[in-house]
Amino acid sequence: MSSSIGTTPVEEVMNTVVFTVGPKDKLEAVAKLFKQHDVNAAPVVSDSDVCIGIITSHDLVEYESTRIEMENHLKRGQGFDLAHYGGGQSSQLLRRPIDEVAIQMTTKVQTTELHSPLSRAARMMCQQHIHHLVVLDEARHPVGILSSLDILGHLLGEPVTRKDRTQSSSGQ
Q: In the chain, what are the domains?
């Protein structure tokens, strides 16, 4: 192992290419963004570019699972009660889950700062059982994203490369 994480600042390891999404964006667009740019998480930002949440590939899987379950209920002639699936007191019957980022995102986003030690960020990720931290500037604007893979790559001395699929051929 060639690198340690003790005093290394987050800014030396984080990915500075950050793809943000808005709360009203559709999940299908987010899934396409993730696939195209080989990422698994995106900060959700307000109109003023302030981080208000995070959406991850795990959130997309949960949405799709709920959508399939709803379809199965409807095929059997049953309604789908939103209250049964975390919708609170509502007894609203839905034909499909709401496909906006705001409904599926995590609002209690875990964040870190540029100059924070990587060891603190790694500890936070372990304690919270998460794979991504949004790196914020003083104005709470996302300036980077730190993944567990970024930390592992740093420990191994192997830079993490992501495959941008924007120019992939149609034969793949």
A: 10-163 (3.10.580.10)
